[in-house]
Amino acid sequence: MCGIVGYVGNKICQEIILGSLERLEYRGYDSSGIATIYNDQIQLRRTVGKLSELKAKIIKEPVSGTIGIGHIRWATHGGVTEQNAHPHLVNSEVAIVHNGIIENYVELKKELTDKGFLFSSDTDSEVLAHLFAYVIEQGLRPVEALKAVLSKIEGAYSFAVLSKSYPGTLMVARNASPLAIGISDDMAIVASDATAMAHLTRQVTYLKDNDYAVITSKRLDIYNGKNEPANREVVKVNVSPVLLDKAGFKHYMEKEIHEQPDAISHTISAMTDVNGGLSAGLDLQSLAKMKGIVLLAAGTSFYAAQIGRYWIERLAGVPVVCEIASEYHYRNPVASHQTTAIVISQSGESIDSLMAIRHAKNLGLETFGIVNVLDSTISREVDKILPTRAGPEIGVASTKAFTAQLVVLICLAISLGRQNGSLDVDKAVDIHQGLLKIPGAIGKSMTLFDSILPIANQLKNSHSCLFLGRDILFPLACEGALKLKELSYIHAEGFASGEMKHGPIALLEKGLPVVSFVSEDESARKSISNLKEAEARGGFIIVIGTQTAVNLIDFATEKIIIPDCDPLLTPILGAVPAQILAYLTAYEKGTDIDQPRNLAKSVTVE
Ligand code: M6R
Fold first, then answer.
1. Which among 21, 68, 90, 105 could bridge 129 via Cys, Cβ 3.0 to 4.6 Å?
2. Is the pTM of this model over 0.85?
3. From the CA of 177, how far away is ligand 1's center (Å)?
């Protein structure tokens, strides 16, 4: 992960770099740093902790200069210490910031140490700084220096380099980690994504894998992996230039939970054709080609994929497999029965999901992306985007992007079912009508903040918690468990209700919280028996479902009621109390809700 920034222009760059780092804080927040060149000297400031720590340091010890680089870190190699924070400075000559992992750093470090170079950090990134210092001291100019260093390193990277010998030049490169270059008449800015620069310029060029560039305030020279000059398109980005605020909410997550009615309405609109029918934004030809689908995703997006599988199989009769992205691209999946790969990603930058969809493309599948950030790498690489219109999601825990992904997936299932004749028009209209009621129903669900608070107060003292669900509610149980563990650090697992007696029931003991999603459909009777088994062993039973569904579980200790809906749509409405439960438990425990420990919003390292 990590976010990098570089600026060269005619303005003092300290505030510009801090402003861009602020917009990249979702990528990591262990430590941060900035380096500039002023009066032929590199000035360096680094701190452990959030960006606010760096800002505080810089107030006391400002830096000057019109060229600089900045970094926000999510630790991979080496603990969270000032020594390991970026920029890494070598011989007062070269400073670098890096996102990614230099996979052959052990060999390189040995080679450099044998030559007498002294390392001051435990990071893989520091080898880059030494390599640049070495080649520049040998007299190589920026293009040659980049070429020489890139010929030695392996792995994923985007980096920016300052050298005292070239005080008006930024050297940058990328492979597998994103890097955008924003340009205007008198400055250039580089960053891990375009949101970090949209307040300065909308004219952006994205480097491709293995590209490198030499940048001054007046010139941008890009080279491809074969060391040939390369022309890369300049695109106008549409990302919001404003720094998002919490609009009076305590946390971004709380705000984003409340934004779900809008996120869902906008997503339904994007999935509606001119005749008012649901279309998933795809023409009939594209739908007709979908004979076998693989859904690729990570984390919360993976649970959306699993719910999508139930819908697509049930409504459209099209076979679907769901693959965890980080596993898929290292396997040899047999794709002969598949036509289509759909990657699901909020950020559009998760490296695992990106690698997985590239793998699917190499296998000859048509590629689609259900993506929230439209100026992202995945959006640019897939054949077609099915957008979620959730708006920027800042809280690390995904909320509104998840429910918007579900909306896209059910629209796709309906469109496919209509196209291939598996779904009759009346049922399609019924589901569509039900879907149109979801934003209002989620609006009403906001009263659950009050009713869930006492439950969260009990849950906060637990060490472990089980989430159960059957059928389409099983992946929702996994998502509920993920939300609780990432926010409150309470161990939580999601199980298929029917799987409990095959092993997990051994975990049951008096007082263990068991959160169960229940439905009114044919699976209800079986879920009740499974819950009875948990109750008989002393479990603290919390059920989430419609009034009719929870009425079936008279022995539950706590009941969380969601608005009435078609059982098929329960995962969308059921997600909201799960988010609120996790949010309030974390709030009552006092954990860092928007930036939980060890996590980052966008996971750009393998
Ligand atoms: O941006 P993506 O949807 O590709 O991210 C995938 C996961 O990293 C993400 O959903 C993660 O699990 C969230 N922290 C869940 O709240």
1. 90
2. no
3. 17
Tens of pLDDT, residue by residue over 42-84, are 999 999 999 999 999 999 999 999 999 999 998 878 889 999 9
Contact in structure between 579 and 544 (CB atoms under 8 Å): no
> Rounded to an integer, what distance in angstroms lies between the CA atom of residue 301 and that of residue 345?
6
CA of 302 to the centre of ligand 1 (A): 8
* pLDDT tens-digit series, residues 354-372: 999 999 999 999 999 999 9
Instruction: Assess whether the region 275-436 and the region 446-597 belong to the same CATH fold.
Output: yes
What CATH architecture does domain 3-248 belong to? 4-Layer Sandwich (3.60)
Inter-residue contact 76 to 99 (CB < 8 Å): no
DSSP three-state, residue 445 = helix
Residue 60's identity, in one-letter code, is K
Instruction: Examine the residue annotation and report whether 601 is marked as an active-site residue of this protein.
Output: yes
Strand, helix or coil for residue 293: strand
Domain range 446-597, its CATH number among 3.20.20.370, 3.40.50.300, 3.40.50.10490, 3.40.50.460: 3.40.50.10490
Q: Atom 12, ligand 1: which residue's CA is nearest?
A: 299
Residues paired with 294 in a beta bridge = 321, 341
DSSP H or E run through 573: helix 570-589
Question: What per-residue confidence (pLDDT) applies to 198?
Answer: 86
